[in-house]
Design goal:
Length: 91
Amino acid sequence: MGWFGKDKNEGKEKPPASVPAAETAEQKSARIRAEAMANARAARERLGDDTIQKIAEALREQSAGKQARDKIRDMDKARVAEHLKSLLEDK
Protein backbone atom coordinates (compact mmCIF):
# COMPACT_ATOMS: atom_id res chain seq x y z
CA MET A 1 0.00 0.00 0.00
CA GLY A 2 2.97 2.24 -0.20
CA TRP A 3 3.73 4.81 2.43
CA PHE A 4 0.66 4.62 4.67
CA GLY A 5 0.78 1.09 6.06
CA LYS A 6 0.07 -2.45 5.16
CA ASP A 7 -2.26 -3.68 2.45
CA LYS A 8 -5.95 -3.95 3.40
CA ASN A 9 -6.08 -7.67 2.64
CA GLU A 10 -2.93 -8.44 4.59
CA GLY A 11 -3.56 -10.23 7.89
CA LYS A 12 -7.17 -11.15 7.20
CA GLU A 13 -8.17 -14.75 7.75
CA LYS A 14 -9.18 -16.74 4.71
CA PRO A 15 -12.09 -19.22 4.84
CA PRO A 16 -11.12 -22.88 5.19
CA ALA A 17 -10.68 -24.70 1.91
CA SER A 18 -13.08 -27.50 2.92
CA VAL A 19 -16.13 -25.20 2.91
CA PRO A 20 -17.55 -24.53 -0.58
CA ALA A 21 -17.48 -20.85 -1.53
CA ALA A 22 -21.04 -20.72 -2.93
CA GLU A 23 -22.76 -22.56 -0.07
CA THR A 24 -26.37 -21.46 0.38
CA ALA A 25 -27.94 -20.84 3.76
CA GLU A 26 -29.95 -24.08 3.51
CA GLN A 27 -26.86 -26.10 2.65
CA LYS A 28 -24.90 -24.53 5.50
CA SER A 29 -27.74 -25.20 7.93
CA ALA A 30 -28.00 -28.82 6.81
CA ARG A 31 -24.23 -29.30 7.09
CA ILE A 32 -24.12 -27.82 10.60
CA ARG A 33 -27.12 -29.94 11.64
CA ALA A 34 -25.43 -33.09 10.32
CA GLU A 35 -22.21 -32.24 12.19
CA ALA A 36 -24.16 -31.63 15.40
CA MET A 37 -25.97 -34.95 15.09
CA ALA A 38 -22.68 -36.77 14.47
CA ASN A 39 -21.19 -35.10 17.56
CA ALA A 40 -24.23 -36.08 19.63
CA ARG A 41 -24.01 -39.69 18.47
CA ALA A 42 -20.31 -39.84 19.31
CA ALA A 43 -20.93 -38.35 22.77
CA ARG A 44 -23.76 -40.81 23.42
CA GLU A 45 -21.49 -43.70 22.51
CA ARG A 46 -18.70 -42.40 24.78
CA LEU A 47 -20.85 -41.49 27.78
CA GLY A 48 -23.77 -43.88 27.57
CA ASP A 49 -27.50 -43.12 27.70
CA ASP A 50 -27.75 -43.34 31.49
CA THR A 51 -25.11 -40.67 32.04
CA ILE A 52 -26.71 -38.36 29.48
CA GLN A 53 -30.12 -38.77 31.14
CA LYS A 54 -28.59 -37.91 34.54
CA ILE A 55 -26.93 -34.80 33.09
CA ALA A 56 -30.19 -33.70 31.42
CA GLU A 57 -32.13 -34.12 34.68
CA ALA A 58 -29.52 -32.14 36.62
CA LEU A 59 -29.73 -29.33 34.07
CA ARG A 60 -33.53 -29.27 34.27
CA GLU A 61 -33.40 -29.00 38.06
CA GLN A 62 -30.90 -26.13 37.96
CA SER A 63 -32.74 -24.03 35.40
CA ALA A 64 -33.68 -20.51 36.46
CA GLY A 65 -37.25 -20.99 35.25
CA LYS A 66 -37.79 -24.02 37.45
CA GLN A 67 -36.28 -22.26 40.45
CA ALA A 68 -38.55 -19.23 39.90
CA ARG A 69 -41.60 -21.46 39.48
CA ASP A 70 -40.78 -23.29 42.72
CA LYS A 71 -40.34 -19.99 44.60
CA ILE A 72 -43.69 -18.73 43.33
CA ARG A 73 -45.39 -21.96 44.39
CA ASP A 74 -43.92 -21.58 47.87
CA MET A 75 -45.11 -17.97 48.23
CA ASP A 76 -48.42 -16.88 49.72
CA LYS A 77 -51.16 -17.38 47.12
CA ALA A 78 -52.97 -14.14 47.97
CA ARG A 79 -49.77 -12.11 47.60
CA VAL A 80 -49.03 -13.65 44.20
CA ALA A 81 -52.61 -12.97 43.06
CA GLU A 82 -52.38 -9.31 44.16
CA HIS A 83 -49.11 -8.88 42.30
CA LEU A 84 -50.53 -10.39 39.11
CA LYS A 85 -53.60 -8.13 39.34
CA SER A 86 -51.39 -5.06 39.68
CA LEU A 87 -49.37 -6.14 36.65
CA LEU A 88 -52.55 -6.53 34.60
CA GLU A 89 -53.82 -3.12 35.73
CA ASP A 90 -50.60 -1.47 34.57
CA LYS A 91 -51.18 -2.65 30.99
